[in-house]
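Supplementary Methods, section 5.1.

A reviewer requested that the exact input to the structure prediction be made available. We therefore reproduce it here, unchanged from the version used in the analyses.
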Amino acid sequence: MPALQCCCACPGGAAHRGQLGPMRLRRVAAAGLLAIVSLAPAPAGADAADEVESTVWPHPERSRFWLSGQVNAIFQWHPGFRSPYAGPNSLRADPERALSRLVTVYTGARPTRRTEVLLDVESAGGGGISDALGLAGITNLDVVRNPTLGAKPYLARASGRIVVPLGVDEEDAPRGPLSMFSRLPVRRLELRVGKISLIDVFDPNAVGSDSHLQFTNWTVDNNGAFDYAADTRGYTGSFTVEYEDRRWGARYGVALMPTVANGIRLDTNIGRAHGENLEVEVRSPSTSSRASVARFLAFRNVAGMGSYREAIDAFRAGRDAVPDVVAHRRRGRVKYGFGLNLEQGLGRGIEAFARAGWNEGHNESFAYTEVNATLAVGAARSSVLRRHRGDRIGLAFVLNGISNDHREYLALGGQGFLLGDGRLRYGPERILEAYYTVRAWRGIAASLGATRIWNPGYNRDRGPVMVPMLRVHVEM
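The structure derived from this sequence is encoded cell-by-cell as follows.
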C-alpha cells in the first residue's frame, strides 16, 4: 500500500530550504479554514448562497429542448523555483505563464417525459504550465494533456438517458445542461448509455468538483487515486445504471479504456479492456444547509498496462538502457482502487468536504493522473460579502503519494505519462489551493486564486512553487 510519508522523516526534515514542516503546514491550512468560517456574517436569513441568475439569459423550466454554452478561461503563471536537475517530464523551473480556454455548446432534447438525449460539442485551446507535465496534482483541470491535439472542436458528450419511476412521489431536480429534468421520481432507476465523462456520474462533490467557479487542481476537483476510464480529453463510451431513493443511491458503470496510457483512442473490445465502477451514496435527513453526504467508491480497470516492477528488474538486469514501463505492457492487467467522498453543510453558507483514495501501485497509472494514494480536505463559503451576492471563497489542502514500485521507477530515471525528473528524492506532493469567485453580472464570473505546491512531482529536490490564477467564466 503506498505510504504518504512526510518529508520531515528524511535527514534535515522541515529544515529543508523552502519546506514547511507538517505541523506548521497543518496550522496554515487550519488558519485558512478558520478564516473562511469567521468571515463577515452571511446576510440575515441566508443559510446558503443567495439566489442569483446563474446564466446570461434564462432557460425555460418546461421546454423539451435545451441549448446553452459556456466559456472558461484560466490564466496561470509561476516564478522561477529551485531545481538542481530536471527531466523531459519535469515542471519547468524557469518562469512561465499559460492561458487555457474551454468552450462548450450544450444541446439536448426530451423525446418523452422520461427520456433525454444530450449532445455537446467542445473546444479546448491554449494550454497549461509546462504543458500539464511535472505534477500529479496539475493546477488546471481544463487543460488537455496532449497539446498537439489543438483547439479543433470535438464531440464531448453524446448520450441517452431513461428514467424508470419506482414510486409515485416526485421531487424537484436542478435542471441544467447535463440533466434536463426539473422533477424526478424520488425512487427511480436511471439508465444512461453513450459518450460521457464518468465524473458526471461518479464521485461528484458540491464543494470540490467545478473548475469553472471553484478549485482548479486535478486532485481537488477529483479523487486523484480514481484512475477513471477516459481518453486524453476526459471522455469515454459507457453504460451506467443508477438506483435512487430518498436517503441513498447506488450506481454501476462499465466504460471503455484508452488503448495506451493517456491515449486519445479508446479500445472498443470491451472483453479485452474496460473499466468497472461502483458507488454507494448515503444522504442525511438534515435540512439543506446542514446536509451531509457520504459516497463510497470502488473501481477496477482492465487494460494493456505496464508493470513498474518488471521495468525496474529489466533495467537492473541490463536488458533495458533505462526503465521503460511501456516496454513491459501486457494485456489483461488489472488496476483497482477505492475512494471515500464526504460533504458536510455547516450552515451560514459554509460547506466542508473531504476525499480519500487508494489504488494498487504495481501497474502503471493509465488514464487520469499519477497518484496511488490521496487525501484532500477543504471548505468553501458562499455569500461572503453583502454587496456581492453569489460570491464564493474556498480553501483546500491535498496530500498525494505513490507506491514503492512507482517511486523507485521514477528514481531510476523512468518516465510516466506525466512525471519524470530523471531522478527522484521522494516526498509526498503537498498542495494548498485558495480561490475567491465573484459574479460580475448574471452568468459572468471572475476568480482570483493561488496554488502552493511542495515537492512537485514527488521530488523534494525541486520547489516549492507558487502558481497564481486568474479566471473568467461565462455561462450562457
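DSSP finds four helices and 18 strands in the chain. These observations are discussed further in the main text.
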